Structure formats: structure tokens, C-alpha cells
Amino acid sequence: MENQQDNGRFELAFGKINYILMAVGLVLLALGYILLSGGGSDSPDTFNPAMFDARRLVWSPILIVLGFVVEIVAIMYKKK
């Protein structure tokens, strides 16, 4: 058993900081996707300019990419 310590307890694959970073990354991803949603029109014949709002074109993709970066860092981070 590779992950077994001397006292018979098992060690988790990630540390506490890794799980905190993963939670932060998931929150950023969820917030980005929530900001991305909406902006549709009730009728297909009318144009809704909210579809091209800065919230959907700028902030949402930034949060999504930042969320993925935080997730990668959370997986790769190893305590010294």
C-alpha cells in the first residue's frame, strides 16, 4: 500500500490547500457560466442587443479561463 503512513492511516491524494483551490476554481467557473447565460429574445423576429453585452463577451470568458487556470494550479500544486 503506497499511500499508507506508518501509523496505519491513509494519506489523501491532495492536501487541504488543493481542495480549497479546487473549490475556488469551481466557483469561478460557475460564475462565468452564469454570467454567460441569458440575453435571448422572446421573439425570433426582434433583436436583443443584450446578447452582445460586455458581461457576456468580456467578463464571462475571463472568469471561465481564470477558473480553469485555478483548477490546473490546484491539481499541480504540491506542498514543499
How is this structure best described in words?
The protein has one domain. The two termini are 23 Å apart. The relative contact order is 0.20. The protein is 55% helix and 0% strand. The chain is mainly α and 80 residues long. The protein has two helices and no strands. The model has no long low-confidence stretch (mean pLDDT 87). α1 packs antiparallel against α2. The radius of gyration is 20 Å and the shape is elongated. The longest helix has 23 residues.
| Unreliable residue runs | none
Distance, first to last CA: 23 Å
Strand content: under 5%
Cα shape: elongated
* Domain tally: 1
Helix segment count? 2
Structural category is mainly alpha
Binned, the helix content reads: 55-70%
**What is the CA-based Rg, rounded?**
20 Å
Largest sheet: none
Mean pLDDT: 87
SSE order: HH
Total strands:
0
Summed up:
The chain is mainly alpha-helical.
Keywords:
80 residues; mainly alpha; 2 helices; 0% strand; elongated
Please give the structural blueprint.
Elements: H1 16-36, H2 54-76
